[in-house]
């Protein structure tokens, strides 16, 4: 059937990648893979045929699952998202059976190897691996999605949209007609980028104007906090003390090799920990991280006499942008007080640190700053990252922060895929040079599901670290 002119224009439309999409796409390298992942555990048998028949009619609910990234030659401008005319869901689905005995150790080894492999940038940036042979029955699904497509909150939203609320699959929303045009060639992409570049000065002026409007928000509390932090660093420098985050065994040059481990803690216990000192669930998660890391660092004779510094991602999604495509995230800087022996002191220190960080963050125009960053050509950003990597800077420079800790709220009720109940969902995230450990948590159906992403060389014993979370929870149970 011939497309009308309007339909053809719509089908051929490319969407320019956002500034943060571009940042994630350009930072990838041979050892820094920038996909996030999720390990879904099911209590029944799930076949590939059932999985495919469930997912295929729902793909339109997450449009980027059928779009690929179209790069501008030489990386001179932001790339574009375009519908992939060659899309075939079979290219994104794989099936594997665990070696006996099929326990959690075997499962962790398998998903670690799968996580190391980069996604194919010649097609939409996701893949799913159906895993059989689990001890005690059941099935696992390991899903990888590039961070340019999704963030923690949008991943939770997508999961809720693709799964069902009960064992009886719901009727999928009717999909609109999907008629992708042929992918544009290099001349078309360059022409489109040139047209967008013509408008860029006006976009830059708009971003600068927005920053000027928001600058008053930096005056007062945030400015005082920043001045205080800088003054503190000057005092520590004059005293010969470290001014950045303390170095740990996992703050080194990463390799391409990953160790992924996972644990589930009772969510009600974690919530009670927070309530015990007028803290949030996120504060409790951070305190558990601090306690587990304190144990691990002490065992490696690497316990510092200062707190660790943790980047804590914050969703910038609002009611108006809920469901919008792509990652929408910012971050605050919190502390993990591993130097404090008393768990209650650690929890209180985390609470106070996060309150200060969120107060400052709420008034700093982070979104506008990211927009301004996006006016640099992607090739320039990639060149800077490669230069830092080649210099192997973590070998001689102290880290600006020690690790990333994320906590994503999820549904407190079970979800189903093709009639099979999902019993657990463990999220995993990304590593960079200098940050060889990432801790991500998601609440789901009564559990706090932890996913630890580790550089295999920098954290060779991830199971021990995971066990420390369970030990730390027992400590807090004694006084909640």
Automatic annotation (TrEMBL):
Domain O-acyltransferase WSD1 C-terminal: 326-474
GO terms of molecular function: diacylglycerol O-acyltransferase activity
Reaction(s) this enzyme catalyzes, per UniProt: an acyl-CoA + a 1,2-diacyl-sn-glycerol = a triacyl-sn-glycerol + CoA
Alphabetized UniProt keyword annotations: Acyltransferase, Glycerol metabolism, Lipid biosynthesis, Lipid metabolism, Transferase
Stretches assigned to the O-acyltransferase WSD1-like N-terminal domain: 18-285
Entry's EC annotation: 2.3.1.20
Lineage top rank: taxon: Bacteria
InterPro entries named in the record: Acyl_transf_WS/DGAT, CAT-like_dom_sf, O-acyltransferase_WSD1-like, O-acyltransferase_WSD1_C, O-acyltransferase_WSD1_N
Pfam families linked: WS_DGAT_C, WS_DGAT_cat
NCBIfam families xref list: acyl_WS_DGAT (TIGR02946)
Native source organism of the sequence: Bailinhaonella thermotolerans
Similarity comment: family membership: Belongs to the long-chain O-acyltransferase family.
Protein name per Swiss-Prot or TrEMBL: Diacylglycerol O-acyltransferase
């Amino acid at each position: 059937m011939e497309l009308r002119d309007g339909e053809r224009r719509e089908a051929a439309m490319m969407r320019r990648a956002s500034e943060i999409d571009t940042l994630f796409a350009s930072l990838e390298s041979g050892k820094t893979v920038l996909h996030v992942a999720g390990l879904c555990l099911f209590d029944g048998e799930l076949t590939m045929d059932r999985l495919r028949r469930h997912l295929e009619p729902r793909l339109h609910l997450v449009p980027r699952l059928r779009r690929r990234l179209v790069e501008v030659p030489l990386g001179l401008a932001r790339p574009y998202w375009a519908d992939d005319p060659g899309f075939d869901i079979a290219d994104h689905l794989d099936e594997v059976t665990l070696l006996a005995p099929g326990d959690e150790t075997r499962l962790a080894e398998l998903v670690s190897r799968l996580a190391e492999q980069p996604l194919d940038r010649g097609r939409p940036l996701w893949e799913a691996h159906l895993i059989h042979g689990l001890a005690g029955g059941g099935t696992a699904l390991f899903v990888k999605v590039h961070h340019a497509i999704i963030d923690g909150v949008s991943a939770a939203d997508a999961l809720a949209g693709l799964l069902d609320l009960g064992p009886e699959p719901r009727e999928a929303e009717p999909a609109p007609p999907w008629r992708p045009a042929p992918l544009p060639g290099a001349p078309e992409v360059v022409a489109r980028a040139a047209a967008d570049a013509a408008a860029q000065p006006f976009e830059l002026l708009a971003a600068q104007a927005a920053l000027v409007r928001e600058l008053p928000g930096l005056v007062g509390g945030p400015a005082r906090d920043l001045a205080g932090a800088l003054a503190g660093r000057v005092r520590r420098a004059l005293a010969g003390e470290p001014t950045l985050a303390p170095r740990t065994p996992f703050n080194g040059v990463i390799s391409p090799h990953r160790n992924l481990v996972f644990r589930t803690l009772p969510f009600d216990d974690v919530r009670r920990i927070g309530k015990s000192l007028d803290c949030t669930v996120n504060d409790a998660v951070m305190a558990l991280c601090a306690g587990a890391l304190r144990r691990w660092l002490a065992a490696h004779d690497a316990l510092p006499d200062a707190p660790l510094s943790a980047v804590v991602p914050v969703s910038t999604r609002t009611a108006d942008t809920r469901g919008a495509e792509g990652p929408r995230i910012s971050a605050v800087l919190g502390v993990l007080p591993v130097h404090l022996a008393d768990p209650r002191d650690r929890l209180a220190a985390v609470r106070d640190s996060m309150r200060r960080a969120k107060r400052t963050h709420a008034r700093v125009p982070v979104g506008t700053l990211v927009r301004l960053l996006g006016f640099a050509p992607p090739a320039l950003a990639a060149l800077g990252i490669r230069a830092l990597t080649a210099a192997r800077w973590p070998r001689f420079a102290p880290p600006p922060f020690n690790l990333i800790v994320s906590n994503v709220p999820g549904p407190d009720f079970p979800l189903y895929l093709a009639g099979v109940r999902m019993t657990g969902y463990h999220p995993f995230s990304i590593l960079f040079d200098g940050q060889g450990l990432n801790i991500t948590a998601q609440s789901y159906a009564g559990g706090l599901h932890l996913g630890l992403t580790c550089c295999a060389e920098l954290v060779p014993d991830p199971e021990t670290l995971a066990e420390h979370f369970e030990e730390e929870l027992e400590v807090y149970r004694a006084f909640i």
